[in-house]
Amino acid sequence: MAARDEVLLTIENLRIEGLSGEDWTEIVHGVDLTLHKGEVMGLIGESGAGKSTIGLAAMGFARDGCRISGGRVTFDGIDLTAAAPAELRGLRGTRIAYVAQSAAASFNPAHKIIDQHTETPVHYGIEDRETARKDAMELYAQLRLPNPEEIGFRYPHQVSGGQLQRAMTAMAMACRPDLIIFDEPTTALDVTTQIEVLAAIRDIVDQFNTAAIYITHDLAVVAQMADTIKVLLKGTEVEEAPTEQMLSNPAEDYTKSLWAVRSFERPIKQRPTDTEPLLSIKGIDAAYGPVKVLDDVSFDIHPGMTVAVVGESGSGKSTTARCVTGLLPPTKGEIWMDGAALPARYQDRSRDQLRQAQMIYQMADTALNPKVRISEIIGRPARFYSGLKGADLTRRVDELLELIELEPDAYRDRLPGELSGGQKQRIGIARALAAEPRFIICDEVTSALDQLVAEGILRLLGRLQDELGLAYMFITHDLATVRAIADEVVVMQHGRVVEQGPKDDMFRPPHHSYTDLLLSSVPEMDPNWLTELLKARSAAGASEAATI
Amino acid sequence: MSDPVFIALCLGGLAAAVLVTWRMGQMSAMRTLIFCLILAGLLALFLGAPALRFSAIVAGLVAISAAASWVFRAALLMVAPTSMGPALRAAPLTAAFGMLVITIYAIAGIFAPLIAPFGEAEVIAGAFAPADGTMILGADQLGRDMFSRIIFGARNTVGLALLATTLAFLAGAAAGLFAAVRGGWIDQILGRVVDVIMSVPSLVFALLILSILGTNLTIIVIVIAVIYAPRVFRLTRAVAGGVVTMDYIEAARLRGEGDWYLIRREILPNASAPLVAEFGLEFCFVFLLISGLSFLGLGIQPPTADWGSMVRESATMISFGITTPLIPAGAIALLTVAVNFVVDWMLYRSSGLKV
Q1: A242: part of which helix (H) or strand (E)?
Q2: Do residue B58 and residue B166 come from a single domain?
């Protein structure tokens, strides 16, 4: 912790307006912020809180359709709101850098990584091309990228997501800026990859004494990274405090509610011993063309139980769901429902078999037809399976809307575009319920939602399970969700089931080594968690190396 | 009339037009008029009265069509159902102008025998007789009334184009949607058939078929539909292909819905915006192709009035300074512009595109 008394960035009474239709509406209502040299500030809040907008404003930038309507942003004595475009251009990239959420979308796919890296320093004449390349390779090494000499000469699609995110951090470091804005740099990554990126970012920020604004909605992540935390809600500041104090003793109710979400947990249900499994996956293999993605996957789902399927992306969780629904016929093995084998292809299944298993999707935006009204989205399955018509159908739609805690009169005639993310997901649930299923596949249903909204969805799913006796196959990569809702857990890696059993057993050692890695990678609220974990892992690595 | 008085009158008239348009709240039309005003002033300075007269006429035409469109939109607002009200009120003047022109053409086409003062093949004067009390547009090369033939031409040319475009759309869009929903070998076969049709230059293809099978109206319509359906197929398949990957399509499939439901309820509402725009464009192309075929002598046969052949029959006269061939050509141009105005507006509305 170097001397941090020198102020680098001040934001005073920042107001930002956004264009909605024809009118300008204020979306950031007077936020103040002071950042010292070498300090890391975490900005947290739900989507729509104005985190990213404020982050961009710290560079004197407003997105298309937004404008800075009031206040001052002063960076090292320069007023960015009044600075000429040429002056801003000179600052951005060299003294202020930005790391975006999706590195895959932010790199130009047509150029090599290192060429994009060296563009800024070469353009501003800070370094010549050769020096810039050498420097890039050093940064790659410091960020623990494999083959730092060579990796820069690949194209963005030739490296993994976590590596790309680190390459982007390296790129932001290219001119040794005084300030870096990190806009959710690890949100799109798996927990195990997230650790590496977090550690790399933290090291490099420490090493160069760079100040940073770290934007995220994940409290545990911000606890590892930030010296101070600022909580935002709907464009206003809720509170700001040093990390330790904020975690142990938040002052505001809103902050407390954010903290409390993490402790939500449903009582576990014991699997009844005498029942037959509702759904039984028996040794299925599956492949996309010649690529085998599932290898001998087997597990059972009992009536009224929640089975969480966890694993990183690419582990075969969603493919298993596609096999169960019949979208991808398995190459080997069978899926049994109610003691009889289901036809492999959904086209060959009977209407009743289709009705029994419904699906809720991750992206509610693409799961609901934007041109169809809510009453029809929910009403169609009821009409299709049960043949309801007229007044009966309307009554059923209202009933379903009430079930998902939305006011029928207010929502019946809306289009999906007129709903919030959480409401859309509720409609997705209602559509599944309309079929009166016994089994629902939930594919990452909460990963696109804010924590408070996600908690609401999980509570709703729990209540519906209790009332309707539904069984869930809950696909997720988020172990906090698993802890909250699962009765049984299936851990998958590389298309295989590596471990399965009741939830309590899974969260208690001994684990399979992969389960252990997954579990230990879930960020915790303790600010020292990352340091401790890395220490433990390097110790373990050393002892392993010693035994070999 | 002396020149200064004439110039003053024209400028005064233009200024009045600007004022009227401005009061109607039409910025773009007003800008056009102000431009005309400045241009007219400059022309008058350098070239004298005739140039001024020309620009004054142009500006007057813009002002009159703007006013007519405004009145037409107001009239539409009165007769249209209330649900259409807000959309219509927000319609730009260009769209209203397009609708006005299309309405006029439709009325002319439908009620042609009632409106036209003479029959379409009736010889009433000498060749290229100038306009007079009975013939407001003069006579063509055989002494037939130009105005009557334009009116009948609206019925024949536009009707035929509409029929052919609709047919091309029904066939192309149906095949495209089917290919997108089914995929696999059905998609492949349809796609390759379309490639084969598109590999033959369209005009050559039309000439070939029409010379073999003869120039009867049914064959013209079918040939044109065959030529244009592949373009519609490609567009529809591309648009629907994007929609088909959405999760809501998967949800509907897993529900057990049939292809017809998927196409009608899930895909079509999300693909209609580009299709509507394409319809407007294709209509214009078809219209021009029919006119082109008529010009070449393989389209609608004389003595049936048709704008394309009317241009051809009197085309040579343009070198003698006779403006007769410009009238049907202008009729074609006007409709093309009008249709595109309306389509632009519909596209803007259904897609939420920002201009």
Answers
A1: strand A236-242
A2: no
Residues in A touching B254 (Cβ below 8 Å): 325-327, 346, 354, 358-359
| Chain A residue with minimum CA distance to B266 | A369
CA of A410: how far to CAs of A29, A87, A383, A403, in Å? 29, 50, 22, 14
Site from A20, A351, A362, A371 to mutate, B interface, most B CB atoms within 10 angstroms: A371
- The C-alpha atoms of residue B259 and residue B267 are separated, in whole angstroms, by 10
Question: How far is residue A331's CA from residue A335's CA, in Å, rounded to a whole number?
Answer: 12
Side chain identity at A149, as an amino acid letter? E
B102 pLDDT higher than 80: yes
A271 is written with which tokens? Answer: 């699997």
Alpha helix ranges (H) inside A371-420: 374-386, 390-403, 408-411
Q: Is the pLDDT of residue B322 over 60?
A: yes
**Would you tell me how many other CB atoms lie within 10 Å of the CB of residue A445?**
28
| pLDDT digits 0-9 by tens, B286-308 | 888 888 888 788 877 777 888 87
In angstroms, the CA A267 to CA A286 distance is 34
Q: Tell me: do B285 and B153 sit in the same domain.
A: yes
B189 and B326 share a domain?
Answer: yes
For tokens 């002319």, what's the residue?
A: B108
What CATH code would you report for A279-508? 3.40.50.300
CATH topology of domain A7-257: Rossmann fold (3.40.50)
Of A367, A371, A385, the CB nearest to B251: A367
Q: Is residue B54 part of a domain?
A: yes
Contact criterion met (CB below 8 Å) for B90 and B330: no
Range of the domain at B215: 146-351
ipTM of the complex: 0.76
Chain B residues at the A interface, defined by Cβ less than 8 Å, are 246-248, 250-251, 253-257, 265-266, 269-270
Is residue B134 domain-resident? no
In angstroms, the CA A399 to CA A415 distance is 19
The Cα A481–Cα A531 span in angstroms is 24
A70-73 long-range Cβ contacts below 8 angstroms, 24+ apart: A70/A13, A70/A14, A70/A15, A70/A30, A71/A11, A71/A12, A71/A13, A71/A14, A71/A15, A71/A30, A71/A31, A72/A10, A72/A11, A72/A12, A72/A13, A72/A14, A73/A9, A73/A10, A73/A11, A73/A12, A73/A14
Task: Evaluate if residue A447 carries a pLDDT over 70.
Answer: yes
Q: B178 and B322, same structural domain?
A: yes
Q: Give the pTM.
A: 0.76
Residue of B nearest to A349 (CA): B256
For the sheet with A291-301, list strands across it: A291-301, A279-288, A332-337, A340-341
Helix boundaries (H) for A190-329: 191-207, 219-225, 243-248, 253-261, 317-325
Distance CA B249, CA A346 (A): 14
Q: Which residue in A has a C-alpha nearest to residue B247's C-alpha?
A: A367
CA–CA distance from B145 to each of A351, A502, B125, B135 (Å)? 68, 92, 8, 6
Which of helix, strand or coil describes residue A88? helix
Question: Cβ contacts of residue B345 below 8 Å, gap of 6+?
Answer: B91, B92, B94, B95, B98
pLDDT of amino acid B25: 52
The H-assigned helical ranges of chain B are: 3-23, 27-47, 49-79, 85-89, 93-110, 112-115, 146-153, 159-182, 184-199, 202-213, 217-244, 247-255, 259-261, 268-296, 307-314, 326-351
pLDDT at A244: 80
CA distances from A146 to A151, A215, A483, B29 (A): 7, 27, 34, 63
Chain B environment of A371 (Cβ under 8 Å) = 269-270
